[in-house]
Specification:
about 170 residues, alpha/beta, Rossmann fold, 2 domains, 9 strands, about 35% helix
Length: about 170
């Protein structure tokens, strides 16, 4: 069985794959990658690891330019956007809306003061806003909630978690 490694913990590798197709589960869900746009590599990596462990494909970008390049290649299912990066006339959000309409939800992630935080969420038309520092479990819950409205291209019935020789059935 060959499947993309979604996360690594020490010397253990975990991959969530579909039982029938043996494809990574995020691809089976029919969703594009979650695009994390944050100029802090540490925060972007943390978010990516957590979401990959939950079975999602994740791409990271440290700038709007790189994020747009990635979004042009594949429509993201969700964007987690560092609120420090958007400008009042945010070219990233405008270009994303031009490419895909309003079909790609945005969650703002920020450590800005409250007024600027709320303003950034309004400017980007975010469906949710998360304050830094954030609780990892809360982040995952909010991502799942945001993706509930995103329709996959097809459904699936079950998956397996592969950890060396151990196989555990999951209900999707």
């Amino acid at each position: 069985m060959s499947a993309e490694v979604l996360s690594v913990r020490g010397d253990r590798r975990f991959t969530v794959v579909d039982e029938e197709t043996e494809k990574p589960l995020d691809r089976v869900r029919g969703l594009g990658p979650i695009l994390v746009v944050d100029d802090s590599p540490e925060i972007a990596m943390l978010i990516a690891i957590v979401l990959r462990e939950d079975g999602f494909a994740v791409q990271t970008a440290p700038s709007h330019e790189e994020a747009l390049s990635k979004a042009e290649l594949e429509m993201p299912s969700l964007v987690l956007l560092d609120a420090v990066l958007p400008t009042p006339d945010d070219p990233f959000v405008a270009a994303l809306h031009e490419m895909y309409g309003r079909r790609v939800p945005i969650i703002v992630v920020s450590d800005l003061p409250e007024a600027a935080f709320q303003n950034a969420a309004r400017r980007t038309e975010a469906i949710d806003a998360i304050r830094k520092p954030f609780d990892i479990d809360d982040l995952v819950v909010r991502v799942r909630r945001a993706l509930e409205g995103v329709r996959p291209s097809h459904s699936h019935s079950s998956a397996v978690l592969v950890d060396g020789a151990a196989v555990v059935a999951l209900v999707a």
